[in-house]
Write a structure and sequence with these properties.
- The chain is an alpha+beta fold.
- It has three domains: about 50 residues; about 120 residues, D-Maltodextrin-Binding Protein, domain 2 (3-Layer(aba) Sandwich); about 100 residues, Periplasmic binding protein-like II (D-Maltodextrin-Binding Protein, domain 2).
- It has nine helices and 14 strands.
- The protein has a five-stranded mixed β-sheet, with helices on both faces. Strands 8, 11, 12 and 13 form a four-stranded antiparallel β-sheet that branches. The protein has a three-stranded antiparallel β-sheet with strand order 2-3-4.
- Helix 2 packs across helix 8.
Length: about 290
């Protein structure tokens, strides 16, 4: 190989190395730029909330005692509603509630129509892939409301096959029913008495839902010949505020206030007020199916 050819090859190698270095630098700069953009977007969303002076929160207004209208005043209240109101006070922000069904809440979060949602919403791995959750404030488990006369022919979760289960399509409890082969009877944003009456009349067979919610619902409507199944306990779970994934600053602010409320006993007091003296903010020990 002569000197000229050697120099040409050396030049090609040098140019190739230079391109790789420039590409690496460009990639690093691009990643830093994207990270900076994400931080700016997150910060600007919190800044928008602060500038507006308001957090928009989706809830149903029909789920006693988490979110409902007081019969005397028609005011929106409930365990989670009051937690959110207190968060607003401590952050010096107004709270605007928008009432809708669970399915609409998740869609509204994604579209940015609301900043967060509360409605006894369980933390699940599937939801955590799409949304962010605050620290928990409720620990519970699933039970089944059935008819008193014959337990609706249900003595275990395996007996759910073919039974008519009432609920929301995207609820975790309907998913449990689905796994055991229930016939789904889907309701929109209706009040508890509609669900309970339908089981009592035989239009449906079972309501799979949270133990504490079921217990209070039955106490509120003693006229129905229905009950919580005495032996079926399943699906231990936790509930929290759900937010859009990129609302990191809002999430940090919410968690900071929730920690304060746990520490000073506010959440425990609200729980006892709305759950008949029981503290749902503390994890319980049960035997589950």
């Amino acid at each position: 190989m002569n000197t000229i050819q050697f120099r040409k090859q050396l030049l090609v190698v040098f140019v190739g190395i230079l391109m790789l270095v420039l590409a690496a630098c460009g990639s690093s700069a691009s990643k830093e730029e994207n990270t900076e953009k994400e931080k700016t977007a997150t910060s600007s969303k919190w800044d928008e909330i602060v500038e507006k002076g308001e957090i928009t929160v989706a809830t149903s207004g029909t789920l006693y005692p988490a979110s409902f209208h007081a019969s005397e005043t028609d005011e929106l209240t409930g365990y989670e509603v009051e937690i959110v109101k207190e968060i607003g006070k401590r952050l010096d922000l107004d709270i605007q509630f928008i009432e809708m069904g669970l399915d609409g809440m998740l869609t509204s979060l994604n579209s940015g129509q609301v900043d967060m949602a509360v409605n006894d919403i369980e933390i699940t791995p599937e939801r955590e892939e799409k949304f962010a959750f605050s620290d928990p404030y409720k620990y519970s488990f699933g039970t089944a409301i059935v008819r008193k006369s014959d337990h609706s022919g249900i003595e275990s979760l395996e007996d759910l096959k073919g039974k008519r289960a009432a609920g929301a399509a995207t609820s975790v409890y309907m998913e449990v029913g689905r796994q055991y082969g229930v016939e789904e009877v889907i309701y929109d944003n209706v009040t508890n008495d509609v669900y309970l009456r339908d089981v009592d009349l035989g239009r449906t067979d079972v309501i799979l839902n949270d133990y504490y919610l079921q217990k209070l619902a039955l106490e509120a409507f003693p006229e129905f010949e229905i009950m919580i199944h005495p032996t079926i306990k399943y699906h231990p779970n936790v509930q929290a505020i759900i937010l859009k994934k990129d609302n990191e600053e809002l999430l940090q602010q919410v968690n900071k206030v929730l920690a304060e409320m746990h520490e000073d006993g506010t959440i425990s007091e609200l729980s006892k007020k709305f759950f008949g003296g029981e503290d749902v903010s503390v994890e319980q020990d049960h035997d589950f199916e």
